[in-house]
Write a structure and sequence with these properties.
The chain is of the alpha/beta class. It has nine helices and 16 strands. The longest helix has 24 residues. The chain binds FE2/S2 (inorganic) cluster.
Amino acid sequence: MKKTHWFDLGRIENLKKRGLQHIIIDKTPIALIYKNGEFSATSGECNHEKGPLGKGHMEGDYIVCPWHGWHYHRKTGHARPPNYAACLPRHSVKKSGGHLFVDLTPQNRRSYFPHPPHPLARNITRKPGPIRIAGISATPMSKALKRYSTSEHLLQAALDHARSKFKLETKLIKLRDLRFNHCGGFYSIDEKACTWPCTFSQFDEKDQLGEVYEALVFWADIILIATPIRWGNASSLYYKMAERLNCIENQVLVHNKRLIKNKVAAFIVTGGQDNVQAVAGQMMAFFGQLGFLFPQDPFIGHTRGWAAEDMGNNVEYVRSSRELKQGAGRLVERALAVSRSIHKVKGNNRF
Ligand code: FES
């Protein structure tokens, strides 16, 4: 028989005032529920990432975790959907002398839904082979009505140059072709709620940002990001991706773990109007925080200035400019020089 360890939670009349509360006793978090005139108690720690369940809310008979919304039955502790084998430890409660007591010895063990680790949760090791460059195009564009993009044109020129002149492996990711969620802003609740792999990658099998995570964290040695300027900023698609990359940077804060090491980033910024330096500067600040290194002159850009609103001419200018194309090639060469020197410093001369 299990040894009980009853703890006095206080006056029942006071405890009835809240439907769900988070109570910590000797470092043990308890979620205390009062519903339909009865008390129940479960562990206050979510099975997923230890979110504080007592700080969540109730949906019917279920406690909803405040971090990512997992549900647990208030009496059985079973997670929803019901076929989930996951279950919280339950704690007995009793009333005595107008006070409520909780047994700190749980009635059952915590159980988890058995599943293989997420593919992105694997160790980060560089696969052997030549230097690899991933280009990420952030230009938004209607799939139904394909059109020319100045930033993507220069990105493509850079990747072509890397392949033809240096025999590097390249990959082009067009963000507009990926279906992915907006960042859920979990970091704003608690830094530990922003997880690696990203919560959306874990739970939404249709979320396709995994392709970007794979390229940035595992596959590529160099990344080139290309964006148009939209109202003085990078594109909305760029920001949609960037917010989802918070989980990479956040690992340093939460686990002192750098996911990005020995990788180089460079940028291509084009627009009908001005602001190249501000856009590139913002991107450099962000990718620097992620852990990327930069070559000298880490971006190329093109605008014809504030007054140039003859966009058709702008397109023609970029499409036919040999100088811009050569600039894209030279950007690759500068990024490659840094990448090579990093790997030489590491004593790895395979590249
Ligand atoms: S759902 Fe509870 S920690 Fe993620």
